[in-house]
Amino acid sequence: MNIKQIDLRLLRSFLTVARTGNFVRASEALNITQSALSQQMKELAGHLDQALFEKRGRSLILTKFGNGLLQKIEPLLGQIEEALMQSLDDNRNIVGTLRVGATNTYSKTIALPACIELLKEYPSLKIELQELPAQKVLTELMEGTIDVAIIPQDYQFPDLEWSSLITEQFSVIGNIKMIEKLPNTITLKYLAKYELAALNRQFLMRQKIDAQARKEGASLEIRMEASSMGDLIEIAKSGKLLALGSSIALIKEKQLRSKEIKGELLIRTAAVCWRKTKFVNSAMIAFQEKAQEISSSLESEIKHRKRQA
Asked: 155 — phi, psi (to 5°)?
């Protein structure tokens, strides 16, 4: 074993291959050729006298030794990289690039405002924010292409750490006149007599709505399906349909109102999450704190709106 020949370049490449599971995506992420990356992995395995990966079909699977190495060096590499970047910054500010992922509603209402606040406070920090479906966010997290994310906490992955932000009950959304005509206590069974709009069935929110409807024996008339809460908001603004969705998305909407729908399945919690093995750097901590502050403000605003309704 010759560990003196191992440098950060080899270890960083190893982490990328381990997270993506193949040389194609890893080489694209590292901006090197597949042949160069393959050679690096052979070099690292040779220095360690151990196999790091084994092939299963088109995928690369970590060996027991490779997985143990990953768990140990990933947080250490993150710590080294942050220390090196901070040493180059005379002001000792938070530096480097923070890669954030979030679903549509949480991106616009929590992640984006948090990122803007961080940019104001830390002039040396750069942020990459991606708005993605929840399943894609999870994939990007596990592959290491994003550092931290805000998604519904319903997605329980053993390899992720979670910090809860805000819990909401799903709501019926419409213009002020339409919502004022509805009773204070609303169920999906009651809403079965209305023409509705909802997210399409690939979304967990829609799946939970459908499950609650089955539980109540309610046959909902979904006249239109949408691919984001933003689209549902526009549908609700038309005044033609009531929308089933998130009241959090209405915070800046003056012409729309919402009322919560009763049902034990019609609930979700927004949470910040990251991989357990990842070094939690200063930028991630600061983002989590900002997201918590913004979520607390959202919660207060939602309570205020409920009192007005």
From this structure: -80, 95
Q: What is the mean pLDDT of residues 174-199?
A: 94
Q: Does 256 lie in the same domain as 225? A: yes
Domain co-membership, 212 together with 298: no
Q: How far is CA 234 from the centre of its chain?
A: 23
- Distance (Å, rounded) from C-alpha 101 to C-alpha 114? 12
- The mean pLDDT of 220-249, rounded to a whole number, is 94
Q: What is the Cα–Cα distance from 145 to 178, expressed in whole angstroms? A: 44
Full domain range(s) for residue 68? 3-87
pLDDT tens digit sequence for 7-30? 888 888 888 888 888 888 888 888
- Number of Cβ within a 10 Å radius of residue 15: 20
Say whether 54 sits in a helix, a strand or coil. strand
What pTM did the predictor assign?
A: 0.78
Phi, psi of 42 (to 5 degrees): -65, -40
> Among residues 240, 263, 249, which one has the least CA distance to residue 305?
249
Q: Give the number of domains in the chain.
A: 3
Residues 94, 283 contacting (CB under 8 angstroms): yes
